[in-house]
Amino acid sequence: IFKFLGAISVDLGQDRIKPYLPTILTPLYRELNSNYAEQDPTLKNLSQEIIELLKKLVGLEAFSLAFSSVQKQANQKRAMRKKQRALQTVANPDIAARRKLKRHKNKVETRKRKIESLRPMYKAKRHRSHALKDLAMVE
């Protein structure tokens, strides 16, 4: 998709690409700012190359305006999600408690995996679920 976006922007040219610049920059910005553990470095490099290509194509001033608008929009979305999550904890404490239990369980499992990788002879005790209650949602 990134290659397609680059090809389309080159094909359209400087004047016709300007209205679509924020739309094109949105996925590129998202890829550049992502911090996933399993992120593909080739995608990051490709998005950086396409951003450089767009800078040369439309000029630094137009690119900067579009990029800053995309950046601002992403920050607003992030803040909105954070605010909604905080409101949900107050409005639905049972859902928040469930999420907290799940997060804690994942943290404990991660800690056990880390200890096992550092000391291969050590085997951490794993939670064994025999009951159907363990498979069901927490009530």
UniProtKB/TrEMBL annotation:
<dbReference type="InterPro" id="IPR052575">
    <property type="entry name" value="SSU_processome_comp_20"/>
</dbReference>
<feature type="domain" description="U3 small nucleolar RNA-associated protein 20 C-terminal">
    <location>
        <begin position="1"/>
        <end position="116"/>
    </location>
</feature>
<dbReference type="InterPro" id="IPR057525">
    <property type="entry name" value="UTP20_C"/>
</dbReference>
<dbReference type="GO" id="GO:0032040">
    <property type="term" value="C:small-subunit processome"/>
</dbReference>
<dbReference type="GO" id="GO:0030686">
    <property type="term" value="C:90S preribosome"/>
</dbReference>
<dbReference type="Pfam" id="PF23099">
    <property type="entry name" value="UTP20_C"/>
</dbReference>
<protein>
    <submittedName>
        <fullName>UTP20 protein</fullName>
    </submittedName>
</protein>
